[in-house]
Amino acid sequence: MDRILGFPILGFILLLAFNSNANHFIFGHTFSGDESASFLTIVEMIKIESQLAQKDLASNATNAKEHAEHTTEHLTANNTKEINERNPRLATELNNTLSDFVKTFESKSPSESDVKDKVSNISDLLSEVVSARIDKEQLDNVTVKALVVNDLVGEGLEHYSSALAMEENKTSASNATENGSNETAKIVNDADYQSAQAAISRAIGMYNEIKPSGNTNSTELGNSLNSLKDTIDNKSAFDQADKTVDDKITPLLNGIFKLKLAEEAGHGGEESHASSENETLKSNSA
Known about the structure:
Blueprint: H1 2-27, H2 33-56, H3 61-73, H4 77-86, H5 88-104, H6 112-133, H7 136-139, H8 142-163, H9 170-178, H10 190-210, H11 216-233, H12 238-257
Helix pairs in contact: 2-3, 2-6, 2-8, 2-10, 3-5, 3-10, 4-5, 5-6, 8-10, 8-12, 10-11, 11-12
């Protein structure tokens, strides 16, 4: 009798072990610092676009609708899959919430209070998503935060390029550069211009959160980020903004935070990351 009872017990133990391993397989993906930074940048850009949509609602419905549409463009199928690994409910809810947000701006007269509530809901939901998707150690990692600063700068450049319609206006952009830095660039997409300004402002804010104290290079990096903001605010030639990033911001980020970014390469998003050292550094505020 003891031997007969032993087989079911042994089988039950093996079943528990299998389920434990299966759960570990499903939820055991630890995201790298580069992956976490790229995801955090997406979250920041969704917040920025939703807030700009709310801000423009009363004054420019066209811009507001474009910003709303940008919220869904940042989130890829792979991002949704990664969220789903950690929390399927949040993955579904985020997609549905952003889709609903876009639909709100398809009506002729969206309610300002309704949009305000939806923007607040998006922000709260993104906070949940970040907590589920990224380990706290990564959230506290200064290297990861510095990569987000880099990516936000890249987003700013990308949107500024789109605001100037660089591909369609190569000749005028070239002439603006040749005529000197005081030449005012022509903005052809106001929504992208707003996104560029907001992305750089957020990069500055995030850098100030991790800025090392008493460091000459860190002060120079702060000045360079502000110089980039001024360049875009003054609608200067794109090449001037790009030069500030290539000559100042990227090398200083590399030197201060040991990011190993590819210099004079594409800026922003996952493409801009070389393999970072991703050591566990804590922010000054931690």
